[in-house]
Specification:
Oligomer: homodimer
Structural class of chain A: mainly alpha
Number of domains of chain A: 1
CATH topology of chain A: Arc Repressor Mutant, subunit A
CATH class of chain A: Mainly Alpha
Number of helices of chain A: 8
Low-confidence stretches of chain A: none
Distance between the termini of chain A: 32 Å
Order of helices and strands of chain A: HHHHEEHHHH
């Protein structure tokens, strides 16, 4: 059984994050340090509750994030990135570089994005290592 | 007037190509040399006619592609990439690298993708230059 439209690398990637929200959720966890559902709901783009629920479940199923009960608040889930997600750092860097060149990015507000867009390989490697420590046990 | 959900670089990018088809259309023009509507319809992922029409119009409006009548077949339109599109080469390279590591890519069929995923900066620069000559007058 194979439900992929093709085995092209671009297609397989957009089958996972080719929508208006998935990369923003990963961005929030990766660069904003958001680990809880409620925090992700409060992002500027105003994701709807049902869409956030859907996308988190999909990202978990695709091996991009994991969740576990928060030891400090038993009612809450805490979300973590997997190594598969952390390997998306260079994708965010290349998207950031392109957006800053071609789109009306607010570079003062999104300082992190500007840094990443100018990032050299060493900085990307450092960020990935930091994320691995925070997210992957 | 500003209809953007935010001015985050990731958001502004997914507002353009955050869907299941746009990056595949750009891929077809960029890597498969497809320049006509009919050729794009025949791609493996089987895009529907109305979706292809929609996405091409959106990509034209966003300054990613241009179209003009084909001098050899007056009925046909010929599509070209803009510099804004050609600057997406590093985004395709980083997506390709990620997909090959984490998803069931057919690397024999998509040789070009594997090359790009391993590409060094010199190769990316060369590809961009070639595309500029072919597409941007």
């Amino acid at each position: 059984m194979d439900n992929h439209r093709s085995h092209c690398p671009v297609n397989l990637a957009v089958e996972i994050f080719g929508d208006k929200w998935s990369l923003l959720i990963i961005r929030d966890i990766m660069f904003e340090g958001k680990r809880h559902f409620r925090e992700m709901l409060q992002s500027e783009e105003k994701i709807a509750t049902n869409i956030l629920t859907d996308r988190l479940a999909m990202l978990e199923q695709m091996g991009i994030i994991t969740k576990r009960p928060d030891p400090e608040h038993k009612q809450k889930q805490i979300y973590s990135l997997t190594e598969k997600a952390i390997d998306l750092v260079p994708v965010f860097a290349s998207i950031g570089e392109w957006s800053i060149k071609h789109l009306p990015v607010d570079t003062e507000k999104y300082v992190h994005a500007s840094q990443l867009a100018r990032a050299n390989k060493r900085f990307i490697a450092h960020l990935k290592k930091t994320l691995m420590k925070e997210h992957v046990i």
